Structure formats: C-alpha cells, structure tokens
Amino acid sequence: MNKMGINAEKYILQIFDLNQEIETLKDDQEDLKILLETITEHSTDLENEIYEKNQIMIKYLQQVEIITTAAAAVEAGTFEINSLDEISQRTDELGQLSRVFQNMVIQIKVREENLRKQVAELKIEIDQKKQARQVAEIIQTDSFQSLKHKLQKLKQIKNDTKHFA
Questions:
Q1: Does the pLDDT value for residue 111 go beyond 70?
Q2: Which of the listed residues 35, 59, 76 is the one where a domain comes to its end?
Q3: Above 70 in pLDDT, residue 163?
Q4: Least packed by Cβ within 10 Å: which of 24, 34, 127, 163?
C-alpha cells in the first residue's frame, strides 16, 4: 500500500473513532438532560414540601405564642378560658399542653373562689368575736353595771306600781 492509502485509512479510522465519540457524547448529553429534568422535578417537590412544613411550623409557633399570651393573661387576671379552644383540639403535645393549661386555670379559679369564701367567713367570725369581746368589755365597766342596777330598780318600781293599781 502506498503512503496515501495508509494515511487515508488512518484518517478513516480517526473519523470512525470521532463519530463513535460524538455518539457517546450525544448519549451522555441525553442522559444529562434527563438527569437535569429529574433533578428539577425533585427540587420543585422538595421546595413545595419545605414550604408546606414551613407553613405548619409558622402555625405551630403562632399557637405557642397564643399559649404564652394566655399565661400572661392569667397573670394579669384577664384570661378567657375559651381562648385556647382551637389549640386544645390538636392531638399533639401542644394540644395536650393547652388542655392541661385550661384545666389548671379552672382549678385555680375554683380555689380562689373557695379562698374568697373562707376569707369572708373568717372576717364574719372575727367581727363576731370582736363584737362579743367589746360587749364583754362594756358589760364589765362600772358605768354599765350602774345602769343595769338602775334599770332593775326601775323595773321593780314599775312592777310594784302595777300591783297597787
């Protein structure tokens, strides 16, 4: 074979190799396009999932804030028991916390009312004892004893005059 034939054959082999490499690159390019589409789809799904979870977390934190506000309202004496009803319907720990909080406030109100009643009863009892002590002090004074003695004399005189008439 002549030199030109060898070079032509060499070029033909190189062209064949290059065509195979081009086909491989085209296949790789198709694979990369598919991979890019798949990644784009999954990233959109992940973005949507993250957004949804973020919305759930925002609502959760808003409800935690409602419970915190309720605690401050208890401290200020302005708590409304039904302010936690929505949160109390949750089935998770936050719902449980809300229900326990509502029950505690109810128990506190009952205890406070009982204490107020007891204080009122004690005030009445103290006032009665104070009054009895003051009466006892008055009865023991000389002037009261003198008045009592004069009253007895007047009664006696009145009874005596009734018998004579």
A1: yes
A2: 76
A3: no
A4: 163
